[in-house]
Design a protein that fits this description.
- The complex is a heterodimer of chains A (240) and B (335).
- Chain A is α/β, with parallel strands linked by helices.
- Chain A has a single domain, classed as Rossmann fold (3-Layer(aba) Sandwich), CATH 3.40.50.300.
- Helix content of chain A is 37%, strand content 25%.
- In chain A, the strands form two sheets. In chain A, strands 6-7-8-3-9-10 form a six-stranded mixed beta sheet, with helices on both faces. A four-stranded antiparallel beta sheet of chain A has the order 2-1-4-5, with helices on one face.
- In chain A, a hairpin with a 2-residue loop joins strand 1 and strand 2.
- The longest helix of chain A is centred in the last third of the chain and has 16 residues.
- With 335 residues, chain B is mainly alpha-helical.
- Chain B has a single domain, classed as ABC transporter involved in vitamin B12 uptake, BtuC (Orthogonal Bundle), CATH 1.10.3470.
- Chain B is 79% helix and 1% strand.
- Chain B contains 18 helices and two strands.
- Chain B has a two-stranded antiparallel sheet with strand order 1-2.
- Chain B starts with a helix and ends with a helix.
- Classes of the chains: A alpha/beta (240), B mainly alpha (335).
- At the A-B interface, helix 2, helix 3 and helix 5 of A face helix 8 and helix 9 of B.
Chain lengths: 240, 335
């Protein structure tokens, strides 16, 4: 059994099937990529894992324990952190306070929460901005704050939702370096990303979905050469 | 220590106040101010810090007042014991309400609190066998002097401000503000938003109920329309919060002082100024104007709130640096 497992998950919004029978498994310490065209159900998958939406059918297991049906805060307590595609900073709090609020999950003491927050801010390279109000940050820093805040809850599994979208090339390289650094620190990562350069270079394995159905699963090389994936992204003409 | 110097000086002044100002009328006003500090602090905790705006603080205030009143009226136990009971009874009302209504977000929760306010008032009016209905409850005042009431009110106000201060420096405080800023984010960093909203609401209800039982003891008369009043209690609580500064520790204290002063200023016609003017210039037009000014206090509340929101959106305390700069600028212009 895999470290983290999604087992035949269905999600229907009324008559619309957003996900139909998606299954995959992630091993500990992997970076697992999730790709697919717009509207293919990637963010929905995250919202199901995180407990934001209830499942229509199926099971999600972390370390063999079923987490589907739990509330988001409970799932976070069990060790799954997430970032949001549309960033959701705690706007009128400073960067440091944002991270302290998350750090309180694992400790009652303010001193400990604060030192944990400062350590993780340093790790993520936000030290210079730590006293700024979150809503005043530029987008690259806001995305970084999403990651920092999620890390402060000391997750075993981190869900990154398009953390590289909208970044310039320099910022992109920094983001990739950060993600690798997080993996090296022992956190398993599932990442949704549109930028192929990013996802192909950092993922150990990739799952491609389209219209809520799995197209293929494999190493980046296998997925990139798969004709169904090319068809889904570029149209049938290119898939021969 | 330095940042606490200001409030400690104010506390010192407040401790000496009834010995310096012996006029019972001003002592009465200060008791009201201190009572409003407690109510405003409660409102600020749930609405200002946790972001769950309440339009129904009167429900908790009235419950506290009736708890103290009925204790004395039905069981013959001193209404002062009601100080202990009043806050708890308010929590007893707040708990099931919050449990059910915190499924609602934003404006919908605010509307539910408004409904709670109305429901409580109707219960107090209709359940005549318990509450005496519209007749209300009349008790004998314990003290002739205002001074004992003043010190009780001061203790309650200090408890309220210190509670808010301590809570907001702790983990709870961080969680409350996180919930206000973004509930989804709060959930995603492991905060049980429902649980912490309940804590915030119960603390707020406790402080408000405490103020309610003080009111019963001090005013010695309550009826459903006084203590469950939407505009005199619930709306006033919001005004105290907004004018003083939403989400600031000392905001409600400043707001309470300003609002009680302003409301009294209009109720009495500028502390009798309007009356002397009408006596000096006894023309019908002046008398008519005087009549309207005295009746315009609710209207003036409205204008005041609009001005505060336009120019000091964070309230007097929240926008204090801006306000001070404005005043200095004005003085420089004059010189």
């Amino acid at each position: 059994m895999a470290y983290f497992e999604v087992n035949k998950v269905f999600k229907h919004f009324g008559g619309l099937a957003a996900l139909s029978g998606v299954s995959f498994g992630v091993e500990q310490g992997q970076i697992y990529g999730l790709i697919g065209p717009n509207g293919s159900g990637k963010t929905t998958m995250f919202n199901l894992i995180n407990g934001y939406f209830p499942l229509t059918a199926g099971k999600i297991l972390l370390e063999g324990r079923e987490i589907s049906g739990m509330k988001p805060f409970r799932i976070c307590q069990l060790g799954i952190g997430r970032t949001f595609q549309v960033v959701k900073p705690l706007k009128r709090m400073t960067v440091l306070d944002n991270v302290i609020a998350a750090g309180f999950l694992r400790t009652e003491s303010k001193i400990e929460a604060r030192s944990l927050a400062e350590e993780i801010i340093e790790f993520c390279g936000l030290t210079r901005q730590k006293d700024k109000i979150a809503k005043s940050l530029p987008i690259a820093s806001r995305k970084r704050l999403e990651i920092t805040r999620a890390l402060a809850t000391k997750p075993k599994l981190l869900l990154l939702d398009e953390t590289a979208a909208g970044l310039n090339p320099t910022e992109l390289d920094e983001a990739v370096a950060l993600i690798k650094k997080i993996r090296d620190s022992g956190v398993t990562i599932i990442i949704v990303e549109h930028i192929m350069k990013v996802i192909m270079t950092i993922s150990d394995r990739i799952l491609a979905i389209n219209q809520g159905v799995v197209i293929t699963e494999g190493t980046p090389k296998e997925v990139a050469s798969n004709s169904h994936v090319i068809a889904a992204y570029l149209g049938e003409d290119y898939s021969a | 220590m330095k940042e606490n110097a200001g409030p400690l000086i104010v506390l010192g002044i407040l401790l000496l106040f009834p010995w310096v100002i012996t006029d019972q009328y001003y002592q009465h006003l200060m008791i009201l101010v201190l009572m409003w500090v407690a109510i405003g602090s409660g409102w600020n905790l749930i609405a200002g810090y946790t972001g769950q705006v309440s339009f129904g603080d009167a429900a908790f205030f009235g419950t506290g007042a009736y708890a103290a009143g009925l204790l004395a009226f039905k069981l013959g136990i001193s209404a002062w014991w009601g100080l202990a009971l009043g806050g708890l009874m308010a929590v007893v009302i707040a708990f099931p309400f919050g449990w059910i209504c915190f499924r609602l977000r934003g404006a919908y929760f605010a509307l539910a609190t408004l409904a709670l306010n109305e429901v409580m008032r109707h219960i107090a009016t209709i359940w005549e066998s318990l509450t005496g209905g519209m007749v209300g409850i009349l008790l004998m005042q314990t003290f002739v002097s205002k001074i004992p009431y003043y010190y009780v009110a001061l203790v309650i106000a200090v408890i309220a401000v210190v509670t808010v201060q301590l809570v907001m420096q702790s983990r709870w405080g961080y969680y409350f503000v996180s919930i206000r800023e973004d509930q989804d984010t709060a959930e995603s960093i492991g905060i049980d938003t429902h649980y912490y909203k309940m804590i915030s609401l119960c603390l707020a209800a406790y402080l408000t109920g405490l103020a309610g039982s003080l009111y019963m003891n001090y005013m010695s008369f309550i009826d459903p329309h006084i203590v469950f009043s939407l505009h005199d209690i619930s709306i006033m609580a919001i005004l105290v919060g907004i004018v003083g500064g939403v989400g600031t520790v000392y905001g409600p204290a400043v707001g309470a002082f300003v609002m009680v002063t302003v409301s009294e200023l209009f109720r009495t016609g500028g502390f009798g100024l309007v009356d002397s003017v009408t006596k000096a210039i006894p023309y019908p037009a002046v008398m008519l104007a005087a009549k309207y000014i005295k009746e315009a206090h609710v209207f003036t509340f409205g204008v005041l709130v609009i001005l505060v929101i336009l120019f000091l959106p964070n309230g007097i305390v929240g926008d204090w640096p801006k306000l001070r700069r404005g005043l200095l600028f004005w003085r420089r212009q004059k010189a």
